[in-house]
Every structure is written in structure tokens, then in C-alpha cells.
Amino acid sequence: xxxxxxxxxxxxxxxxxxxxxxxxxxxxxxxxxxxxxxxxxxxxxxxxxxxxxxxxxxxxxxxxxxxxxxxxxxxxxxxxxxxxxxxxxxxxxxxxxxxxxxxxxxxxxxxxxxxxxxxxxxxxxxxxxxxxxxxxxxxxxxxxxxxxxxxxxxxxxxxxxxxxxxxxxxxxxxxxxxxxxxxxxxxxxxxxxxxxxxxxxxxxxxxxxxxxxxxxxxxxxxxxxxxxxxxxxxxxxxxxxxxxxxxxxxxxxxxxxxxxxxxxxxxxxxxxxxxxxxxxxxxxxxxxxxxxxxxxxxxxxxxxxxxxxxxxxxxxxxxxxxxxxxxxxxxxxxxxxxxxxxxxxxxxxxxxxxxxxxxxxxxxxxxxxxxxxxxxxx
Length: 378
Ligand code: OSB
Ligand code: MG
Prior knowledge:
The protein is α/β, with parallel strands linked by helices. It is built from twelve helices and 16 strands. The mean pLDDT is 97.
């Protein structure tokens, strides 16, 4: 693939309703999209960074900075045999996994289109439908949370994940578990607790949780290794795991029994694939996490979820749970059994709605062979 051009865009999209986590509330999304053209074919990726650095260190603006100053200028005129060769191109840049992932995944889309096959097949996927769960934001009171859970179960979703934070945790989970004694139920603390809270975290043993996601500090695998033997709930790491090496350390230390793979958090499909293989070899189930993506990021999540290690329902759910109108066609839809059928057309397998993206764009920057210099439009 000879890269001809790369276009960065920031689009603004408003979530249907605010999403509250222990680190803050998200509603007005500032999403970066990356379009790469290589061998005359256009591919799309999404940068999954948040607007503020509450989940991880990256933001929409740090990603724009890294992409426009350090990554995009390297690309025009470069030839890569495979998208999986891209990580080596940006190896000298430390961190900024989400920024890198936006470009790498666009290259995967190009490569799959050039090969005339769906992306999920190119990645080595083995299933034609994926199992879906939902992640529910923190609510005012337990009753309204129970009502939300009922709605999602009626739509068919196979697993419910509740966001928790100190003061909005035990009573909420208890109310949901009481109403739905049999469902697959998880909680996600997004690093809101400390090792001193062990007795409180152990009290969740009552609820037969499928997992407790990232209870402790975002960068502290060691503290999770101390916590895991003291609680029954299997710990699932999210924020702590940025690459396969982190996963191997966490597994060897018994810091978790499950890992959430987010393609952006680990730097792209190449690392996500290697991480799931490493976990599979060691009997650690993985599932695909979400970052409130537009249809483009969602399509990439659908594709990676087909790999053999992804044995638990992911946080990949229908476009219409988030957006009044998505930027892809068809939108991502979930069956009444809580599954998404993977697309059979080449690349990400969903049509990108250019006119709609154009209308949502607030800034863009293009890098191409002919100009070499970039063109900035605000
Ligand atoms: O921790 O999984 C998380 C959303 C934003 C930031 C972090 C997380 C989440 C979610 C939502 O849980 C997942 C989704 O539905 O996209
Ligand atoms: Mg999480």
C-alpha cells in the first residue's frame, strides 16, 4: 500500500443522553476521524480519546497535536506491505495509543478493501455474529437504574454492566441483583477505589458478579494483584492494560482474571490481536470495550470482537443507543437475541456518510504527496 494522503477531522456529535462515570459525565463528543488514502482506496479510523483526560491521559486535543505534528507528516509517499507494519513506523513515539490507533485502523480498512474481504476476516475473525452487552452510566437512584436495566434486557442484551463510584454503588447493585437474580451482571469503577476499601469491595461478593472492572488506580497492576485474592469477584482490568506486556505482567501477578480490550487503548488492531492471542493461550477471557464511539469506531469494534479470544459479551451495542443519527450506513443494529451480525462487504463493511461527516466537521487538516505541506481549514 502506497499512502497518498491522510486527512484528520474533528467532528462534534451529541450523545442522546449524558453518560456518567466515576471520572465525570460525557455528552458533547469531540471525535477525531482519520481518513487514509492508499493505492486509490480510502480507509477510515476513529480516535477514541475523550474530551478530558479522566479515563486515560489522552484527549481529543492531545491526539490532534500528536497526529498533526508527529504522525501524519510521516505518511504521504510511504509504502507499507501491511497495516500491521504501522506500529513500527510510530514506535519512537511513546504512549498516545489512541492517536496511533486511529491511523492504524484506517490502514486496516484500506488493506481489507484492497484484498476485497471484510476487515474481520483479514484480522482472523472466526464468528459471524458477536455477543453484546451494555454499559449503563451512574443514575440518580436505584429504582431508575432498575428500570433502565429492564429496558436493555427487553432489547435482548446479554450482559449488563453498571458504572459505580463511592456512594453510588452497593445499594444500586443490590437493587438490580434483587430484581434480576440470574442475569450476567458486572460493575465498572473506572479506578474510583483504593486498596483501603477492600472490605467494601469484598461486600460485592454477595452479588455473584461476572466481574469487577478496574476498581483501583488506572496505572496500578500491583495493587490489583493484592486485591484479587481478597475478593470473590473476578477482577477485569481496563485502564491498566496498554499493550501485551502489561497483560502478561497482570496475568503472571494474578492481578485479574479477565481483560477488557479496547482497540484504541492498546494502539490499534495489531496490538489488540496480539493481546487476545496472549490471553487465549493463558486461559484469560477477553471482551471488547467501548468508548462511546461513532459508527466508524463501532465498526472496528465489531470486527475485532470476532477473534477467537473474545469469549465474553462486549460493550459493543447498537448505534441508536447513543446517536439520533450515526455517520455510517447501515447503522450498527443488535438483534433481539443481543447479537450483531458482522458485515460481509470489504473493509469495515459499513458505508461512511461523507456528507453527514462534512456537516459535522469543525476542523480538518490534509497531508498529501503533492503538497507535502499541510492544508489547514478551521
Ligand atoms: O470504562 O468502559 C469504560 C465509556 C467511556 C469511558 C470508559 C468506559 C466507557 C464505557 C462505555 O463503559 C462503553 C460504551 O458503551 O461505549
Ligand atoms: Mg471500563
